């Protein structure tokens, strides 16, 4: 394939890569925040609220991401929810990722000995102070690797956003391939983009893991 085709379609591919990064980062952070909130509510709520949260987790985890996107983007207007493709993509990532993040955080809470909660409450610490000063520093040791792995999964799930016309990297690559009748080279370049995103996420996860486990290495 001639290099001038990549020169011609380079701006579109870079724009698609930017949209991919936007949806991935915003969706991952939003899903992580919502998942942490769900895990906190689950930890300190009654049986009925826990049941509702568990139903939400099972429903979202039990349905394909593509179907959730279709419901948000095409079914949303029937309920007054009008979203642009990019907004639907980000919202889809938040909804899809939150149950998985919630389960990771819930496992982190469960790994903290109950005696530490009781001792902190006896000392008059608020629940938020207990989470911030006692639970989080310990749970990050055990959940950093699972969090990194799931963020990597979300990296590759961005390819599904093209089904709701999000102009992300796969969408632009498919457009380029359809207009030039070349398929191998564009998708090889697409693979390199995703490989770079995965490698960056893995590197960042390793840096965070080294940071939160440095006290163990000193010991």
Q: Mind explaining what this structure looks like?
A:
This protein is mostly helical. The chain has a single domain (17-218), classed as MetI-like (MetI-like fold), CATH 1.10.3720. 82% of the residues lie in helices and 0% in strands. It has 9 helices and no strands. Helix 4 (85-110) packs across helix 6. The longest helix is centred in the N-terminal third of the chain and has 41 residues, at 3-43. The protein is flat. The relative contact order is 0.14. The model has no long low-confidence stretch (mean pLDDT 88).
Which keywords apply here?
single chain, 219 residues, mainly alpha, MetI-like fold
CATH superfamily: MetI-like
Which consecutive residue ranges, at least 5 long each, have pLDDT under 50? none
First and last CA, distance: 56 Å
Structural class: mainly alpha
User: What top-tier CATH class fits best?
Assistant: Mainly Alpha
Share of residues in helices: over 70%
**Rg computed from alpha carbons, rounded to a whole number of angstroms:** 21 Å
CATH architecture verdict: Orthogonal Bundle
Count of the domains: 1
Average pLDDT number: 88
Overall strand count: 0
List the helices and strands and how they pair.
Elements: H1 3-43, H2 47-61, H3 65-75, H4 85-110, H5 114-122, H6 127-157, H7 169-180, H8 184-212, H9 214-218
Helix pairs in contact: 1-4, 1-7, 2-4, 3-4, 4-6, 6-8
Quick overview of this protein structure:
Helix content is 82%, strand content 0%. The protein is mainly α.
